[in-house]
Amino acid sequence: MSIHLVSNGTRSLEHYSHIAKQVDSYVDYFHLREKQLTARELYNGALLLIKTGIQPEKIIINDRIDVAMALGVGVHLAYHSLPIHEVSRTFPSIQISSSTHSLEEAREKANAGARFLFFGHIYQTSSKPGLNPRGCKKLQNVCQHVTKPVIAIGGITPENVGEVLEHGAAGVAVMSGILNHHNPQASAKQYHLAIKTWKGGHHEKTV
Question: What are the φ/ψ torsions at residue 172 (nearest 5 degrees)?
Fold first, then answer.
């Protein structure tokens, strides 16, 4: 079971790095999702993470394959990114994850070479105003029909971590639940404990 902390583009990467250092012992992957930044700015932000002590294997860059390859870290591909199979063919050493929003899309991306998948949004969230959440039943359907680990995203709190794990998720992705919390370290610890104390057992598909 893994915890993914995704930057939300609303604060500086210096601030994100400061939080990352605090929560490193509780978080498995740090995603830099900064659509507004240039390649150089994103590269420097990732270097800042590494300088604060985050291991490169825990860092994942959203969309920018060039930055990920330059740093030797993972890449997370979205709907507007290059096709997974082309990235995997051209850069066979890179670890690829991808966002999905339906079973068909999840199957396609899993078969194309994604190491793991994000699926959401699961619950109502302020980052997706006006859009109905997909819910745990759809999450479960995806988890049951793809061969790769599925990470639940969207409105995830320490209180509902157990529910998404019960429906097959191999982990959770969090943004505001940690980044906007008045005590990010305490919040990350709550997510960590929610996973650690989950009584539903262990899934074979893990990240």
Answer: -135, 150
